[in-house]
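Input:
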Amino acid sequence: MPIIVNLDIMLATRKMRSKDLAEKIGITTANLSILKSGKAKAIRFSTLEAICEALECQPSDILEFSPEV
Amino acid sequence: MRKLIILKSIVDLVWILSLPIIPLILIFIPYSFFTSDFNYFPFAINGIEIETFDLGTKIILAVMLLSYLLLIYCIYLFRKILSCFIRVKIFDEMVVNNFKKIGNLLVLSSILIGVSSFLYKIYYMQKISLKLGFSQFFLLLCLGFFFMILSEIFKISKKMKEENELTI
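Output:
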């Protein structure tokens, strides 16, 4: 998929664990793992909003477009 | 779910009743080619009594019997689909593939039955007739295409279900 989720980097820069983020935004760690691994097919605006709020960042910091070679 | 169990029971019954026919057909097809004495067997193809037994009739009869075997195989596949539904495995790859297989086999079977009975009428009865409405040929053909469409619908549904599950 040409959309890359940079959640790992954002979590590392904020020294936050996946479990803490999952608890903060109200999703399961399994779902957060799917999102981090890039297996997710779509993301709800409400989830994106919650992630941005929790990590104090913009959606562009989390999602990146990279054309497939 | 009760309706599903009723349907499964009916299909199981039809399957069990058609089981003894399979070896009989498999034995009869080669036997029919090696014997010429059929006078003690009253035969009918789609309601038409067979009077002469030459190679053409035998081939038509063999094709007809093979198409009936295909129909029995369709019942077997449908049983498998219903078992999947009972186990709540609805949008499964196996269900999609089996629906597609049933559709293809029903279309093939209807063509085999239709063509062979049409040829029999032309060669042995010297008449051309086309029966519309609830004839076996059109009913099977429509049922075959219906199963093919059902397979496509289940394929789309499966994809949508996967996408829904992977929406965070």
